[in-house]
Amino acid sequence: MNQKRNELLDKLQQKYDEIGQNVDVHLEGLLHSTPITYWDYVQTDALLNLQTKRTNLPDEMVFIMYHQVNELLFKMILWEIEQVAFNKNITTTFFATRLGRISRYFDMLASSFNVMGDGMEVEQYMKFRNTLTPASGFQSAQYRMIEFASTELINLIDIRFRKTIDRDTPFKHAYDHLYWQAAGKNHETGEKSTLLTLFEERYMDDFIVFMQTYNTLNLYSKFQSLPEADQQNVELRNAMRHYDHTVNVRWVMAHYDAAGKYLNSGDTEVEATGGSDWQKYMHPKYQKRIFFPSLWSENELQNWGVDNLESYAILD
Fold first, then answer.
1. Residue 58: is its pLDDT beyond 80?
2. In the predicted structure, residue 274 carries a pLDDT above the cut 50
3. Residue 26 in contact with residue 16, Cβ under 8 Å?
4. 302: buried, middle or exposed (CB in 10 Å: 19+, 13-18, 0-12)?
5. Where are the domains of the chain?
6. Which residues partner with 178 through β-bridges?
7. Which CATH class is domain 62-302?
8. Which of 28, 197, 253, 290 has the most Cβ atoms closer than 10 angstroms to its Cβ?
């Protein structure tokens, strides 16, 4: 026991010597510190006080908490992507493992939509949603960052403008032609909605910096920078295909179906809180958001989102 303790003390001495600190001061501090508790470590009180309803309708609490859970999962996804992006000696095993983690987070997101889809009364939702305008899930900055960090920018450009944009295009110009810009603009006049204007005022500068950072570090670019033999690794290719399908088809369609349950619940269809043409904006067959196009066959690309691709082929 004494030998083990001495070894630990020696390691502590070395640790604090390396950063110019007196180990005795830190050890003495332990005498006055209190044990860590679950609620302090997780910050339970702060977390449980982040829900602020705007109405007296009970199901609004479900709506708020569900979206907060989404944002926490988005943060986890960005954390995993960052580990891939900035790994200078990446292996196919590490790459595939991290993609597996990311996909599991999105699997949770996709399967969780019935919590909101079946967990709120339509009548309550149609009342409290009017207090949310012009806010929209469209304005999730973390989700936009996940897109930027997952694929080359050209794959996020509105398909109508892709031939006019390349790697030499200024980032601001590319940003103005991202696929989701169309959901925030008047199709006839090009005028930006309040939804999009507020979103850009808050995040556009951050997005430009993020786009520049991940221009060559996004998941697709990292994959393409691997040796050819590694790019043919079946485990890695399947992990990338699963991630692409889960994010851009399965999760999107789960969101689409949940939205449809409420927005098409009456005699007439209603628009999303942000005013977007939510059906054409969300459905993958229109936008054809595909992170890793070279990993899909021509037939799969052409039929993207048409049949939900639930049984897409696993490579062997």
1. yes
2. no
3. yes
4. exposed
5. 2-33, 62-302
6. 157
7. mainly alpha
8. 290
